[in-house]
Write a structure and sequence with these properties.
This protein has about 325 residues and is mainly α. It contains 10 helices and 2 strands. It has a two-stranded antiparallel sheet with strand order 1-2.
Amino acid sequence: MSIWEVILAFVVVVLMLVALLANVLVLMCFLYSADIRKQVPGLFILNLTFCNLLMTVSNMPLTLAGIIYKSQPGGDQICHIVGFLETFLTTNSMLSMAALSIDRWIAVVFPLSYHSKMRYRDAALILSYTWLHSVSFPIVAASLSWVGFHHLYASCTLYNKRPEDRTQFVIFTGVFHTLSFLLSLIVLCFTYLKVLKVARFHCKRIDVITMQTLVLLVDIHPSVRERCLEEQKRRRQRATKKISTFIGTFILCFAPYVITRLVELSSVVPISSHWGIISKCLAYSKVVSDPFVYSLLRNQYKKTWKDMINKILKRSSINSSDDSCLP
């Protein structure tokens, strides 16, 4: 193994460990907190977490083996199953993120009618469409034998070995990425930019009230005035940072891999195998970032996992004290 391959293998191992721990923690928070389970977005987050966990335990280990051994790990049947899952889970994850953005858009833009427009039944229908949409492409690919081990990405994924099927495979790949990556990106941009517009409007209203209050309170201490202005500035930046994170991580993680797949089909630009694996690792990094972006850094999830840790520590301290009291 070259130094590059050692580094890439190490990166995949780190991604696997962090993704497994973070997504399991999200799942534990969902099971532990009744409040999280009651919320409609919890269904989308649960579906996203399920996809991430399955991707972590099925696809990442085979990519690691592909990097180390430079050949297809396991038999053809295992590779076909893993390639099928890779296509299904990636599409399902993208559409789950789009569903979460639609939920936020309805909640922010139509707050009074949110509970009538986004019920558990509506969320279940959206998830049903997500699964149907996601499973249709790998079924077509598997039926046409377009799933196999691709040396460029050291992964079991969409791959055409027959030159006579090249035109059909190019069309299929273009349609697949258009209706998965591009469609999800358009939904994310549309919904979150609408949310940002509403958030900025509310910030302006709050800023006007804050400035009027500061003008009226002539005897206010300068430090208090300064804190109010700082909070006003942070409030303006908060929504922009969150929405930039949602859209930015999606583009940063998925775009290099999607663009590489499309450039590869053109046969005009030669693609390094190292770059192919790097682009695959960037796509895998979304599995790592999703738990933090959508769950663990939110206040409700923070409180839940901190309560879980405190409960475990409290129980262990009680057990240790009981052991010390024994003769």
